[in-house]
Specification:
The chain is mainly alpha-helical. 67% of the residues lie in helices and 5% in strands.
Length: 369
């Protein structure tokens, strides 16, 4: 008798929970709260998921594949046990992405981790939608109320994702404004204008364009990088301690083969950017050289022992190679050969550094100190 009473209480809680969760999430769209939202969101998200599984069990949705006999009142698994694994992995990654966006502030995330988290969140939501479309067939004609309970949880996950990603976009735009970021490309500057308008939208309007806003935010995170205006204020000058802009005299660029490439290759290909300082001497630098040095700087900071090994190999072979780069054509060849490594360096920087373009911008300048 007592067990029946507690069983009834549990089921009442299960049936009421989706409506309570929905009311709480919708109210957050209109009312600001000082409560620790992330803790409540995590609890609501995973407690709701647990209750969904309980409800599926009560509705006789089994994990049996189509080739396994089940009782007449039972249903086979909506996903094949072998091929459905990838679906659950995507769902799990979507939850993980949402968790990262909730726990960490945008300024604490590297560009790639931030973009991947947002991307997996959207992908998880889209995959969840397919699961709900798969389920709907057996709930029509008498099971609509049960399906409504299942659907309410999915709606709440969407509401949670909309709030978290909108917050991420608003913070991202705010940080760009505060830092007076100087974008590397005109496309990045255009994306900034778009995301500035998106960040000022109401939650309702933002929800209407949610998938498009997510795609634009991912592009903005990756393509909208640039050094902070504060750093540029010091480095975009000439003749001073932190200066990087120096009038171009003929310079000696021996002793470092990427320096040789930046100085000796055809300008249209190697794209020299500015002048820098290396061991007290003025050198010409390009994006490839700055990226390689920023990567070395990151490795030295994170993995000093590994850096010592890399530095030893580079010093051993770099100088002899530079002796053979005696023509612009040879410099061009080295630049092209090094291009895949440059892309790898950029990937690692965007993955492991919260402000990769700042680290790149200050290389070969006194500002780095």
């Amino acid at each position: 008798m007592l067990s029946d009473f507690f069983g009834t209480i549990i089921w009442i809680l299960i049936l009421l929970y989706p409506f309570v969760l929905t009311f709480a999430n919708v109210s957050k769209f209109f009312v600001k709260t000082k409560l620790p939202e992330i803790a409540l969101d995590i609890f609501g998200c995973f407690a709701g998921l647990f209750m969904v599984f309980m409800l599926c069990g009560a509705l006789s949705i089994t994990d049996a594949d189509y080739d396994t006999a089940v009782y007449p009142f039972e249903h086979h698994s909506p996903l094949h046990s072998e091929y459905g694994v990838i679906v659950w992995i995507i769902i799990l990654m979507g939850y993980l992405g949402l968790l990262i966006l909730g726990i960490f502030k945008p300024e604490k995330l590297s560009p790639i981790i931030s973009a991947v988290s947002i991307g997996f969140t959207l992908l998880g939501i889209m995959t969840g939608g397919l699961i709900y479309l798969q389920l709907i067939k057996n709930f029509l004609g008498g099971g609509e109320i049960a399906y409504l309970f299942l659907l309410l949880y999915y709606v709440n996950v969407i509401l949670l994702a909309v709030r978290r990603i909108r917050f991420h976009i608003k913070e991202h735009v705010r940080l760009v404004n505060e830092r007076d970021t100087v974008f590397r490309t005109s496309f990045g500057a255009w994306l900034y204008k778009v995301m500035s308008k998106v960040s000022s939208m109401t939650l309702f309007c933002f929800a209407l364009i949610f998938p498009i806003a997510v795609i634009f935010e991912i592009l903005f995170i990756i393509c909208g990088q640039g050094a902070d205006g504060f750093i540029k204020a010091f480095t975009m000058t000439a003749d001073w301690t932190f200066s990087t802009q120096i009038p171009p005299p003929p310079l000696d660029y021996e002793g470092h083969y990427l320096c040789t490439v930046a100085s000796g290759g055809h300008k249209k290909l190697v794209k020299p950017l500015r002048f820098g300082i290396r061991h007290g001497d003025k050198i010409i630098v390009n994006r490839q050289l700055l990226t390689a040095n920023a990567f070395e700087d990151l490795i030295m900071e994170k993995m000093p022992k590994f850096h010592k090994f890399i530095r030893g190999v580079y010093d051993k072979y770099g100088y002899p190679i530079s002796k053979h780069i005696t023509t612009p054509f040879r410099a061009d060849i080295v630049y092209i050969v090094m291009k895949p490594l440059e892309l790898l360096f950029v990937f690692v920087l965007y993955l492991c550094d919260t402000h990769p373009e700042n680290r790149i911008a200050v290389q070969y300048s006194e500002y780095k100190k």
